[in-house]
Amino acid sequence: MFKTGLFSRTKSEESKRIYLDYAAATPLEVVVIEVMQKYLHLYGNPSAIHQEGVAAKDVINDCQTRIARLLQIKPEGVVFTSGGTESNNLALLGVVEQLHKTGRAYDSMEVLTTGIEHPSISETILELKNRGVLVKYVKVDEVGKVSLDSLRENLSNKTVLVSVALVNSEIGTIQNIGAIARVAHEVDKSILIHADAAQSPYWMSVELPRIGADIISLDAGKCGGPKGIGVLAWQKRVQLTPVLYGGGQQMGLRPGTESVILIAGATMAIEQAQRKWQERSEKVTKVRNECIKKLKEEILDVILNGAEGEERVANNINISILGLDTEFAVVVLDKNGIAASTKSACSGAGGGESVVVKQISNDTARATSTIRLTLGEETTINDCQKMIQVLKEHVEKMKDY
Amino acid sequence: MFKTGLFSRTKSEESKRIYLDYAAATPLEVVVIEVMQKYLHLYGNPSAIHQEGVAAKDVINDCQTRIARLLQIKPEGVVFTSGGTESNNLALLGVVEQLHKTGRAYDSMEVLTTGIEHPSISETILELKNRGVLVKYVKVDEVGKVSLDSLRENLSNKTVLVSVALVNSEIGTIQNIGAIARVAHEVDKSILIHADAAQSPYWMSVELPRIGADIISLDAGKCGGPKGIGVLAWQKRVQLTPVLYGGGQQMGLRPGTESVILIAGATMAIEQAQRKWQERSEKVTKVRNECIKKLKEEILDVILNGAEGEERVANNINISILGLDTEFAVVVLDKNGIAASTKSACSGAGGGESVVVKQISNDTARATSTIRLTLGEETTINDCQKMIQVLKEHVEKMKDY
Questions:
Q1: Does domain A30-275 correspond to CATH entry 3.40.630.10?
Q2: Which of A13, A32, B339, B377 has the fewest C-beta atoms under 10 angstroms from its C-beta?
Q3: Other residues' Cβ atoms within 10 Å of the Cβ of residue A79
Q4: With a CB-CB cutoff of 8 Å, which residues 99-118 of chain B face chain A?
Q5: Helices then strands, each counted (H, E), chain B
Q6: Which fold has domain B6-20+277-400?
Q7: The model's pTM
Q8: Residues 83-102 of A with CB under 8 A from B
Q9: ipTM
Q10: The domain over range A6-20+276-400 is classified in CATH as 3.90.1150.10
């Protein structure tokens, strides 16, 4: 039996590791491990009509219903995918290809997004562009918030979809999806709003009516669940076409034999994350604010990337230290027992420019010197102090060179 | 701790269940459960450069190397997907779209397949057709073997890809992929041969040079591994483009955070399946042959679908009983403790015609009265006897109506 939490991180070490990369990956919650173990024996194919198949299918149906209830939608609006990336692909390609199937030409469709999205959005958007869809990038401000004026300017009667992350994975900026939806629907009520909510379940509500989104993507591996499983969820008016081709599983929208273990683990993780998000968020916000304050006090050249206060997700700290080789800094932190990153893991966690920080700052020096520190529920201010101490010493040492 | 095997199937029952649907899904092997549990704590994002990330990446690299060694290819020819369905999608769309990217028009490409493929092949082929690719269906004979004459007739200088299942999932017919490759390469050496090998690892070698395939698809859930994870493997000359869009994971061919648990479980499962395939195959072939013999003796109207002897995979029995409602028969078997199916689970495991049996027999009565019985390593002739007894009684009762 394995435990999550700090214990599990330090398998081969005496000293405690300080893990500050929760945005990249989260440990499995104990309750998630338990439910996965509980269902290890349920190996039947959920499409089979015998007892083994029905037992598997029952769990999947139950999970679909529980996710739907949690997100305040109908069970027919829940599909399990292989993760956040596939969910984002299915949202964007699925909506556009469904319209295309019903006779709408690619070049009569416009999709709006921003220049600070995760690669699973930005690369899928580029594929839509390849297929002939018109793509427009709405401006974001200096903290990464969507400019509603720019949105208004870019909307047209061709717009079919607006896709924006609810929480930016690098700088933690929270978008007001409801406001974006209202502006879009002033132009055309049929415009669909997609929110990539992969970074959200631990820290805020992901109920669709509350967010104001028509479709959201979730990833179990970012909120205490297993990797390799995600959710795409939508409200009634969304029509999708699958992006993979095969059997008729999951209402014909996602072929392939469903995994009971993964689906049950994901459902438990998302439920658990949502159950205490407010309490967790308040607690971690305090640690984060204290950590940012101390970072600025201790290391003079620190620039905070992203919003402050309520517009920033509870667990995100993203800083630039101009002139510092932050990839090296992350390696030094690691050697001293602290896991951090320079940007999002999917963008290549090592060197190179942060597209997000470049976009909000238009400053290459700032975009090439980012460090992302993403906290967990049990991160303490002590952990942050240690991190700051190591980083400060490293910065000072580098200055001497 | 959960055990696989017979014990795990009978959780809530006193009597032993007889599971004869191994082609639809297999129980997790104990060694697979063990390796998955071992890595539950390795939660780091494999793209991250810190210790937690590197530990995860190390396991994935090791698994990629082990699969490559097992399949007698290079590690650069191994990608982990979300299952057999995604592997088949990536094989077909990946090859064609890569050629399209390099300037080849869709209508200058021809893809050859058969009319008896799994939906993850046949539906992906239809998508290729939608995109303008020319699709030709090579004839199969009355046991489902590809006609090399028909193949020869259909090949042309436009042919880029031939896709055939190594083992047919419904009737168990084994194709001679090497012979198919030789005929294809007489026309054009650059034609790629794809074999869907999802049904194979327990029963035959899946080494690519031995099979004679350029690309193969595998699915861990069909050989003692977890569901939700598959492999696409290829020899050096194959060039692919991804079917999902996002981060640069897995050599840029398959975006999304890799799951250590699933990849390690899949690797262990495929290795274990391949380690003893010959012994397992010989043992189960005897049980299968005895079972077929007794079925024919006891139930006079039984017609065997598919090949006999070495051209049939060890564990497959597919019969038609003309005039019988075999969906009802499968339900009756289930009530009597026996799990069977009418056809492949992905084709909808319940009623309706078997496309495969219709294709080989051109006989609707035969195609609508199929029962598929797929054995496992520990299936005994006693299990088969019980199944035959129940089926026989049911057939006789139905005759009385």
A1: no
A2: A13
A3: 23
A4: 118
A5: 14, 12
A6: Aspartate Aminotransferase, domain 1 (3.90.1150)
A7: 0.95
A8: 83-86, 88-89
A9: 0.95
A10: yes
| Tokens of residue B130, six digits | 């939608």
| B94-136 tens-digit pLDDT | 999 999 999 999 999 999 999 999 999 999 999 999 999 999 9
Rounded mean pLDDT of chain A?
Answer: 94
B45, A28: Cβ pair inside 8 Å? no
Instruction: Domain ranges for chain B, please list them.
Output: 6-20+277-400, 30-275
Which residue spans within A140-241 are E strands per DSSP?
159-165, 192-196, 215-219, 230-234
Determine which helix (DSSP H) or strand (DSSP E) holds B65, and give its type and residue range. helix B51-71
B384 catalytically annotated: no
pLDDT of res. B54: 97
B22 in Cβ contact with B375 (< 8 Å)? yes
Cβ neighbours of B81 in A, within 8 Å: 82
Angle between helices A260-275 and A51-71 (to 10 degrees): 20
| pLDDT confidence bin for A7, thresholds 50/70/90 | very low
Convert the pLDDT of each residue in A232-264 to its tens digit: 999 988 999 999 999 999 999 999 999 999 999
Which residues of chain A lie closer than 8 angstroms to B27, CB-CB? 41, 43
Half-sphere exposure of A65 (CA within 13 A, CB side): 6
CB of B302 within 8 A of CB of B321? yes
Please tell me whether residue B304 adopts helix, strand or coil conformation. Answer: strand
Tokens describing residue B225: 């591994």
